[in-house]
Each structure stands twice: as structure tokens, then as C-alpha cells.
Amino acid sequence: MKVAVVGATGLVGTVILRLLEERGFPVTQLLPVASEKSVGKTIVFKNTEVKVVSMQQAIDEKPSIALFSAGGETSLAFAEKFAANGTVVIDNSSAWRMDPTKKLIVPEVNGQEITSADKIIANPNCSTIQLVMAMAPLHQKYGIERMIISTYQSITGTGIKAVRQLENEQQGIKGEMAYDYQIHQNAIPQCDIFLENDYTKEEMKLVHESRKILGEPNLKVTATAVRIPVVGGHSESVNVTFKKNFKIDEIKSVLNEADGVVVHDNPAKNEYPMPFYKKEQDEVFVGRIRRDESAEKSLNLWIVSDNLRKGAATNAIQIAEYLVASKKI
User: Fold this and answer.
1) 214 vs 10, 104, 229, 297, 328, CA distance in Å?
2) CA–CA distance, 158 with 294 (Å, rounded to integer)
3) CA neighbor of 184 nearest in space, from 224, 150, 152, 227
4) Among all residues, which ones are annotated catalytic?
5) Contact 168, 208 (CB under 8 A)
6) What's 9's DSSP letter?
7) Rounded distance, CA 100 to CA 113, Å?
8) Quick one: residue 320, left, alpha or beta (phi over 0 = left, psi -120 to 50 = alpha)?
């Protein structure tokens, strides 16, 4: 089982390498791929130094799986070259997500859609993954009419440059800026660039990707995405209106039974999920579950997950694990 990790030295790439080792994925040969300036350098995997290789070297090795986390341009330029050699590409960028010929997969939600013919599989956006993990089982039981989403997103979703900006600002050091504004002690109501409709790309990803994964092309969804000075993970406030009525204890039961979802909700003890306490975990945590008293058949809830793990690396590896377990590779 040759496995290529494209973008191996980036924030998500390093988490992928760590999780491949932690989860015991059957890697017989690792092919870490990074920028040309990193070729020949070494990384440590399973206590062994492994040389970083070029993109072409990795393609020529014909790995079974290539885990891409190097941005959309890189994916568009090279994913099909891997796929042409028989490699299954699991891509963490937005490059292929809305391509009608490509599957957009969260294994616990729609893993069964994968076939052995799928050679490029898209990993959804981090915010979308944690959203649909909680909403898919509720949609199955009650039918979603409309979702209103507000996100509070970790700077790690932007990358290492944003982490450095926050660290510099905390220490009063002037340095390279990932954002147009200070992020320390601030909240920036912009994730990614603005589109013609005045929503950001991140907001529209939540709209389009959730529709595709849930199989509801006309689902009513609207979102506001906010960047906050947090490292541990993303949080989402979701207001959802269902087609059927519900009981709160039933909602909690459905979520508790959902694979990969943990209900953490005890107002009497001030218990609810927070990114600081949920980092380095793979589950999606749900709390503040309560009826919206201003609208019929409506619910409020709070969803937290580590965006580098389940929101990116873990989900990609789970897709690979599904391929192996189902003998589709």
C-alpha cells in the first residue's frame, strides 16, 4: 500500500501523517510530496526518516492512494495525472467538490456512494463536515426545511501564516499578515473572498456542499462565516427548521446514536462543547440543543469540531479506510 501525501509539510499534511501512524493505516511505502524547495529534505514517519519527493516522482511510483492537501491549483494540475495511473486521489481542496462527476464524501453520512470507479474523491470543507455530521441523521428523521448557520472559525483554517500573525500580535511583534485586519482580540466577519452576491466563498461552500452531501439540491441554507482568534477548532451556531415536529429528548437520542457525533449538553452544569477543550479529537460535538420558541418545528444547536482533524485530515483518512475495508482499492 503505497500512499502519497501531497502537501506533506503543511498544517493539514502534518496532521495527516500523524494520523496515518496513529490509526495504523497499512502504509507500506510513504511518498511525502511538498514544494520543489523541500524535495530531498526528510520527515519522520513511524520513527523513520523519509525523503520528500517531487510530484512527478510520486506520480511515477503509482501509489494506491494520494491524499492531497496542497490547495486547489495543485489539485487541478496533478490529481488527474495520479488518477490516470490508477491512484485514488482523496482531495482536501475545493477543486473537485462541486464537480458533478466527483463524489463529495463524509464516510459516516454518504460513504456508501463510493464505487471502485471513483478515482478522485472530494473531501468537503471543514465547516461543512461538522455541519452535515450533525444534520444528516436529523434530516433523515425529520426532514430539513431550512438551515441558518453562523460559524466561528479557527485561524488554522487559513494556514500557518495566520497562526504566525496571531502569535506575533499577541507578542506585539509586527510581521506578515494573513488577514487585512488584526485577528488578536478581534472577530473578522470574512472567511475567504467575497463573491458577486456579497457572500464569501466559505459561506457559499456551506450552502452548496451541504446540499450535495444531503442530496437536497433545493435545500434552503444561508450562512455567515466569522474568523476568530482560536486555534483549537471551528464552532457553528445552527438554527434549523424541520418538516416534522420533534421532541428535544428524541433529537438528543438521534444525535447520540449517530456515528462520530457526541452530545455534550448539560445546561444545569454549564456543560457544552468549546474548541479549546475539543482540539485533537476526531468527534463532532453538539450542545446548546434547544427548541426555537420563535418559530414552529425549529431548533437551535451548537456544533464544535477540530477543523484540522475531522474537518480535514481525519475525514480524508476515513475515506481511505473505507476504500480498504470495502475492497474498493
Assistant:
1) 30, 10, 31, 19, 23
2) 35
3) 227
4) 126, 234
5) no
6) T
7) 13
8) alpha
Q: What is the largest CA-CA distance in the chain?
A: 61
**b/e sequence 82-121, b meaning 16+ C-beta within 10 Å:** beeeebbbbbbbbbbbeeeebbbbbbbbbbeebeeebbbb
10 in Cβ contact with 71 (< 8 Å): no
Query: Residue 248: what residue type?
Result: I
Show Cβ contacts of residue 197 under 8 Å, excluding neighbours closer than 6 positions. 204
Q: Is the pTM of this model over 0.90?
A: yes
Write phi, then psi, for 74 (nearest 5 degrees).
-65, -40
- Selection from 1, 2, 5 nearest residue 16 by Cα: 5
In the structure grid, which three cell numbers stand for residue 17, read together? 501523517
C-alpha distances in Å from residue 315, one per residue of 47, 58, 282, 318: 24, 22, 9, 5
Q: How confident is the model at residue 329 (pLDDT cuts 50, 70, 90)?
A: confident
Which residue, among 98, 94, 129, has the nearest Cα to 318 in the 3D structure? 129
Handedness of CA 56, 87, 104, 316 (dihedral sign): negative
Q: Are strands 65-68 and 2-6 parallel, antiparallel or unpaired?
A: parallel
Domains of the chain: 2-124+312-325 (3.40.50.720), 127-307 (3.30.360.10)
Q: Which three cell numbers stand for residue 204?
A: 457559499
pLDDT, tens digit, 9 for 90 and up, residues 76-128: 999 999 999 999 999 999 999 999 999 999 999 999 999 999 999 999 999 99
> CA–CA separation, 95 vs 98, rounded Å?
8
CB-CB contact of 270 with 210 (8 Å): no
- How many C-beta atoms lie closer than 10 Å to residue 145's C-beta? 16
Angle between helices 126-142 and 248-257 (to 10 degrees): 120
Q: What are the strands, taking DSSP E only, across 196-269?
A: 220-227, 234-242, 261-263
